[in-house]
Amino acid sequence: MATKPTIIALEEHYLDPEVKQHGSPGAAPEIVRRLDDLDALRLREMDEAGIDFQVLSHSIPGLQGVDAATGVPLARRVNDRLHEAVQRHPDRFAAFAALPTADPRAAADELERAVGRLGFKGAMINGMTAGVFHDDERFWPIYERAQALDVPIYIHPALPHPTVIEAYYKDYVQKHPGILRAAWGFTVETATQGIRFVLSGVFDVYPALKIILGHMGEGLPFYLWRISHGLRGTMSEKSFRDIFCEHFWITTSGFFSDPALLCCMMEIGIDRILFSVDYPFAENLPGAEWTKTLPLGNEDKEKLLNGNARRLLKL
Ligand code: MN
Predict the structure, then answer these.
(1) Does domain 8-313 have CATH number 3.20.20.140?
(2) How much of the chain exceeds pLDDT 70, in percent?
(3) Distance between CA 290 and CA 256 in Å, rounded?
């Protein structure tokens, strides 16, 4: 019998007890119970599904909802505590840093400390900071440092901007609160963030910067042709497609669909797609079960389930 391929998942969330006091993920109690756990329950549910390794990251809203004076010292405590959790199970966990983005220079320093001293694999940033998208030049010190350290930045959704909720979603929020989150709001917000990164020119200044998007690239691979076509008149040297395919990696977090995966493979190639679950917002078992029926050869399956993550994160 063939051995099961190693499964590495890298959009797997937890909640820091101190960050919790600054904002709620807005999740059901059974999800919060799992976010709170970095030991027995989490490991049991990984084992039951056959998830070998999680790269841990803080749940939304994380430190993006915290002001600079509070967030800078808090980030050090948060990342130190996460490091302790990784040290308890170093064969099962690695980590992405939480960054106090309200002070971008301090966030860059914390990224360097987390990678250099704690062995973290990069950082995750959620949504916006004080209503500002993270392509804004004020945040570029973070990307300069990420490039220097050769670690990726994972751009993760959070709730849409309040004015967007007001204009686009409010009629349906009460009956269908998911519209703001995984059903649509997260996707639009984060896809917009991805497009803005390309338009900002940050990749001209930091040509080795690596960005990860979850949820099959937040729809961008599906739209790659049309976005590139729509911007062909105003993007001179490289097309949107060229820049996206050079700087972005995507994960399967919370999106276990063969047609969506095949579209992503056809647009950006298997080497840039990494398996993830989005635990505990998505369950491990359906994600792991999906991997058993993937329409892929063994070599591509290995890349998706562990090889691409090993390369990108230097695991
Ligand atoms: Mn997530």
Answers:
(1) yes
(2) 99
(3) 6
- Cα 78 to Cα 16, 20, 96, 99, 206: the distances in Å are 7, 11, 11, 9, 28
DSSP code per residue over 268-307:
H-GGGEE----TTTS-HHHHHHHHHT-S--HHHHHIIIII
Element containing residue 149 per DSSP (H, E): helix 140-149
pLDDT for 256-281, tens place per residue? 999 999 999 999 999 999 999 999 99
pLDDT, tens digit (0-9, with 9 covering 90-100), for 177-216: 999 999 999 999 999 999 999 999 999 999 999 999 999 9
Calculate the alpha carbon distances from 143 to 68, 171, 211 in Å: 18, 38, 10
Distance CA 276, CA 279 (A): 8
Q: Name the one residue in this structure whose structure tokens are 């991997």.
A: 291
Distance CA 43, CA 41 (A): 6
Å from CA of 278 to ligand 1 middle: 5
Query: How far does residue 64's CA lie from ligand 1's centre (Å)?
Result: 14
User: What mean pLDDT is predicted for residues 75-84?
Assistant: 98
Where do the structural domains in the chain lie, given as residue ranges?
8-313
Virtual torsion, Cα 28, 31, 33, 38, nearest 10 deg: -160
The amino acid that residue 314 corresponds to is: K
Q: Tell me, what's the pLDDT at 315?
A: 96
Q: Which amino acid type is present at position 30?
A: E
Q: Are strands 273-274 and 53-58 parallel, antiparallel or unpaired?
A: unpaired
**Contact indicator for 218, 194 with CB cutoff of 8 Å:** yes
Ligand 1 centroid – CA 228 distance (Å):
27
Residue in 103, 109, 135, 278 annotated catalytic: 278
* The pLDDT of residue 236: 80
Q: Is 171 a catalytic residue?
A: no
158 C-alpha to ligand 1 centroid (Å): 9
